[in-house]
Amino acid sequence: ALRQVDWPPDLRPHQLDRLKLARPTRQLLLDVASDPQELEDVSMVPERRASGYWFDVGIGFGSLFHELMALVIQAEDRLNALDQISLKYRLDPDQKQKAMGLVEQTVEHPELAYLYRGGHEVFVERSIITPRGVLRPDRINMIGQNQAVVLDYKTGGAKPQDKDQIIAYGEGLKAMGIEVKAQLIVYLRQDPIVVNKI
User: Fold this and answer.
1) DSSP label at residue 157
2) Closest CA to 29 of 53, 59, 10, 5
3) Beta bridge partners of 185
4) CB-based contacts of 53: which residues, under 8 Å, 6+ apart?
5) d(Cα 26, Cα 61) in Å, to the nearest integer?
6) DSSP states of 88-149 as a string?
7) How far apart are CA 98 and CA 161, in angstroms?
8) Highest mean pLDDT: which of 11-15, 53-57, 75-79, 188-192?
9) What DSSP line would sit under 22-65, residue for residue?
10) % the chain with pLDDT above 90
11) Which end of the chain has fewer CB atoms at under 10 Å, N or C?
């Protein structure tokens, strides 16, 4: 049975990272859990289940990979980015190796490598405000004067709305006077990764 726990007054619910660093965290969790054994299933970092394939962590992996790729502006950034994410989320060696494999496949893919060589202005996770709402593509490379390539990473299986989503990103950029040269969806669940050009 769960008991009422007083939330620390200076901590907002979206600041859970501070909880994992705070010394009283285990006591806070013990107060919530009726049985200390329940703590075996509690984690303050993205889910890390024992799995033969890293994608089994589901949405936790998607968020982690997007955060990782947001740090990889150029291919040479990948090692530092992976070290940061590995430290932040306490990736075990197997997870770190699998993440590096996906990053390598992405930055070295024949249809994507030019986007990670440098020389472009790059926007990651930036909002595009449109009359229909706010859009947030994973990556926009400005490859020339008012010319862009839009990239969207997908860690799950392909869905019909994926194409609609990246088309909406392109339309948002076109409305801003930017010519969209390519719209690319990168499916990471397959091995090797699959790049769909829209």
Assistant:
1) -
2) 5
3) 152, 196
4) none
5) 25
6) HHT--HHHHHHHHHHHHHHHH-TTTGGGGSS-SEEEES--EEETTEEE--SEEEEEETTEEE
7) 27
8) 75-79
9) STTHHHHHHHH-SSGGGGGG--SSS-----SSGGGGTHHHHHHH
10) 58
11) N
List the structure tokens of 198.
């829209």
User: pLDDT tens digits, residue range 134-153?
Assistant: 999 999 999 999 999 999 99
Take residue 122 and report the two structure tokens written for it: 């790059």
What's the pLDDT score for residue 58? 45
Residue 183: CA count within 13 A, CB half-sphere:
18
| Separation of alpha carbons 122 and 92, rounded Å | 30
- Amino acid present at 27: Q
**What number of residues does the chain have?**
198
